[in-house]
TrEMBL record:
It holds the Pfam family Transposase_mut. One of its GO terms (molecular function) is transposase activity. The lineage of its organism: Bacteria, Pseudomonadati, Pseudomonadota, Alphaproteobacteria, Hyphomicrobiales. This is Mutator family transposase. It comes from Hoeflea marina. InterPro entries: Transposase_mutator.
Amino acid sequence: MTKIKNKTSSSAVKEILLSSPDGLREVIRAVMQEVLEAEMDEALGASKSECTPERVGYRSGYYGRTLVTRIGKLELRVPQDRAGRFSTELFERYQRSERALVATLAEMYVQGVSTRKVRPITEELCGHAFSASSISAINKRLDESLKAFAERPLHEPFAYLILDARYEKVREAGIVMSQAVLIAVGIDWDGRRQILAVEMANRESRSSWKDFLVGLKARGLKGVEFVVSDDHAGLVAAIGEVIPEAAWQRCYVHFLRNALDYLPRKHGDDCLQELRWIYDRRNLDEAKADLAAWLAKWSGKYPRLTAWVEDTIEQTLAFLCLPRQHHKHLKSTNMLERLNEEIRRRTYVVRIFPNSQSCLRLVRALAVETNENWMEANRYLNMDELREHKKLAMRQAA
């Protein structure tokens, strides 16, 4: 029955997309309408016309609400209950990042940046052009809430810390340059992910990363046992200086990409695939055995690559000291990729930010949205496994 229902839903979505130029907007509208209905069912303890002992109220029709998005205006029907208690966070949560995008586009429009392209976008999103006062009001509301998020105290300890950076185009003093967006994600002892910080820097350097990490510690970051990042020299140095007690894992995905620099352009064989398989081993002994076999097999054909791997691969195997169930999550920075993809999708609309503050505003708004979703989801990792793993290691050491 479920398969038939899913197939029917898929067919309906496909029909909407193919039959209407506004198909995507209609699909999103339908999904959001379903979310509103599900929220009301949960609030009342029963669905429409359902008689259950858990029911705590009754529906009382709908009222119309327009939600402005990047794909146009969505006309939604918001359910009401007789007692007037029902409320939804859907609009506020969704529109926080939308307002950040609108504010940035509007700011560009007022400053005369790509006016021909920006004005139609802002008018499509909001239905009108912007005055300086309206932009100021939007920014003020956003900046206050985003500042509170960025400066919140970190009360609980975080066993795992994942660090990464991406670059965005920003106009400063009339010159377009790339600026780094530094991001930190932590996993607490409840196994939940949190975005701990998002900051802008002129570039990735030891001093910028050090300031970033010192800022985290000033807000209460503590208990970090394991850090994952790429091998940027400034970042690695800052980790060693600010969090010397933590083990460091070099992202194996970045490592495999770096390996391409030591291969001929046309290498067409299984060399890198076999190297990647080493990261699926259960423990360090298995990984070292596979590595020895790999070096023996490929050292004759690719001596530069094998020499480099032999010197540097140990940095990428630190994750093997963790519980096996945690390996796939902490041998790379991939858990940040979905957030980076969403940032990339939104910032692509802007292309060049009028200043670093507008860039930070949009990225932080996306971080808040993602962080709220993470906090409401099931725990990301079972940290009881880490506790048991540490106890076993202590007994073996004794």
